[in-house]
Amino acid sequence: MKIDESIVQGAQSLLADAQNIVITNHVGPDGDAMGSALGLKEILRQQGKKVTVIVPNIYPKFLKWMKGDDEVIIFEDNHEVASEVLKNTDLIIYLDYNSLSRSGDMRDVLASAAAKRLVIDHHQQPDDFATVLYSDTNMSSTCEMVFHLAQALGWDEYINKESADCLYTGIMTDTGNFRFSSTTPTTHRAVARLMEKGVLPQEIASSIYDTNSRNRLKLLSRCLERMEVFPQYQSAIMSLSASDLDEFDYQKGDTEGFVNYGLTMEGTIMSVFLSEKDNRIKMSFRSKGDFNVNQLARDHFNGGGHINAAGGISEVSMEETIEKLKALLPQYEELAKK
Fold first, then answer.
1. Rounded to two decimals, what is the model's pTM?
2. CB count, 10 Å around CB of 11?
3. What total number of domains does the chain contain?
4. Residues of the chain with pLDDT under 70
5. % of residues, the chain, pLDDT over 90
6. Are 126 and 86 members of one domain?
7. CATH, residue 278
């Protein structure tokens, strides 16, 4: 995997000069966000660097087995401590996002920090705030990018089993268990090297996917019962209201992956999942082939992401959001037929 030499040299210079490093990621951290953060932290720790991971808010319980989890600072719970660490750091590494708008309540503190900034991300249309930017929208995940950068820097010896487990987690989850089109031969070669470092895929898969509570399965059942299918547009819409989440004692991460169920139906190429949280509607989009949900989310729902995976937000009611979404489907009929 070839990375532009100016990026490698720029990252090398920033990392060589920094002794106190903060790694952060986006609001609502997922497997790729936490895997890349904790994996990179362990790689840097092996080199004697002082590294602190600060994330905007809590993340799912099924990610808390990774090494370094017990040292993560949650900004929303420890605002003063996190702010002080950010104030005194040499370098901030932004992983799995490319806009300060996705940092939640951390945004102002990050924007005012004097530290240099290294951004590593695979999403489209990055904002211009990095000292060094490593952006590649063709990569499967930020974890894969961290692996390739470590290799380009000559750091293979610093990738141990613990960091390999973290990086594998992000690659596995962001590729939908290697099903998405972002999975490439390069991805599999990276995974092969991580396995050589000691990764056991069956154990990581079990840690992520075999931890369902009874309430989570009931919540999934409710979601599937409420699914609406639109064969003429090859689309499915699923939703959960705030009362649904309350009824089944929703915990962070309980709805992770629900959006993918729509795509498992024969003939469906777009699936949308909506959930009502904090008095607004959070939206997840997934698609197959050339159906560009990134553009749909950007144009209509204050979001974005990738061609086949994106997120969005609606500030109106669930009913209004669903009706708006339904009204938009005819505009994408031709794309659905490709």
1. 0.90
2. 21
3. 2
4. 334-338
5. 91
6. yes
7. 3.10.310.30
- Expressed as residue numbers, the domain containing 104 is 5-209
Is residue 245 domain-shared with residue 155, that is, in the same domain? no
Q: Last residue of a domain, which of 174, 209, 244?
A: 209
Q: Which residues of 123-149 are buried (b: 16+ CB within 10 A; e: fewer)?
A: bbebeeebebbbbbeebbbbbbbbbbb
Q: What is the tens place of the pLDDT at every residue in 242-288?
A: 999 999 999 999 999 999 999 999 999 999 999 999 899 999 999 99
User: In the structure encoding, which two tokens stand for residue 131, read together?
Assistant: 């000292």
Task: Please tell me the predicted confidence (pLDDT) of residue 335.
Answer: 60
Tell me: the pLDDT tens digits for 79-120?
999 999 999 999 999 999 999 999 999 999 999 999 999 999
